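Hi support team,

I submitted a single chain yesterday and got back a structure, but I'm not sure I'm reading the token output correctly. Could someone confirm the output below corresponds to the sequence I sent? I've pasted both exactly as they appear in my results page.

Thanks,
R.
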Amino acid sequence: MNNKVKKINLNHSFIFFIASNIFSILIFKFSNFNFSTILCLFFILMIGVSHGSLDHIKGKKLLELFNIKKTYLFYLTYTLIALGIICTWILFPSITLILFLIVASYHFGKEDTEFLVIDKSYLTEIFYFLKGFLIILAPLYFHFDDTIEIFKLLLIDNEIFYSTLSLIETNKIIEIGIFFSTLSSIFLFLNKFELKKFSIFLDYFSIIILNYYLSPLIAFTIYFCFLHSIRHSISLAIDLDGDNLLNGFKIFVKKAIPLTILTGVFCIISLYLLNNGNNLDGSVLKVIFIGLASLTFPHILLEYLLEKNEK
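Hi R., thanks for writing in. Yes, this is the structure output for that exact sequence:
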């Protein structure tokens, strides 16, 4: 089964790498093409968010492990954590953003790579973080000012925060971070080497290419939806039907639709409340990133608790 997952993900990485090159160059060549923030939000809601839409099933499994029969406790806890993240972001935006970037880096690095790694040491966990950190560092390196503008639209008005970022840029710390992220990919690639691990470098160069040619939001949307989310969805489809991937994917889609629609409704309501008619793009960015943060924290906590208790 594990070899099947590796083969599928290698093919996926190769297709994503080719598509990223073609799409990035075309968009770069036709620079007047308008890829709106609304379109990014649509893809994230339809494809990106859906990869966590089976959390209610995993939540029931976790409750069974703890011998808890009251299913509503999972929904209540999950919702309260998500709302708590939103409130924390409003009150302490700089701190919450930093925590989100750290947690997201680890999450991206682990979920994009762990199917290739047998070693479960703490050192491997660090390499997961460093590998995923490229998702944060690449837009800062290639489009520093654009990334700063996104931070400002996310309620970040702390001068110390921006002064620190400027200091990081001028002292080449971003480049050092990318260097260590590259080393982590090399280590994960060479450790107990096999050909299927080439997906690590295909993913690495795809992220670099996307961020070189495209704006931070578009690059992130393509990565999050068509690499990270689809990869996770593939693993869920295999869990649902290991013998027939297509059937497993059909089951996944059916199970994912209700929570995906519910999340979409909440996002649209949030967009309506946030939009004052003057800055639609800013409202969309808040919905995307603050919304993702509110979903990412309970999603990762659920995955962690389930993994630990299943062992």
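A quick pointer for reading it: The mean pLDDT is 88. Let us know if anything else looks off.

Best,
Support desk
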